[in-house]
Amino acid sequence: MKKFANIFLLAICTTAVTATYGHGKKKHEEASKALEYDAVTTEFGSYDPSLAPDRTIEVSMNDNMRFTPDAIQVTAGETIKFIVSNHGKLQHEFVLGTADSLKDHAAMMIKFPNMEHEEPYMAHVDPGMTMEIMWQFSESGAFEFGCLLPGHYDAGMKGAVSVAE
Question: First-to-last CA distance in the chain?
Answer without folding.
Answer: 39
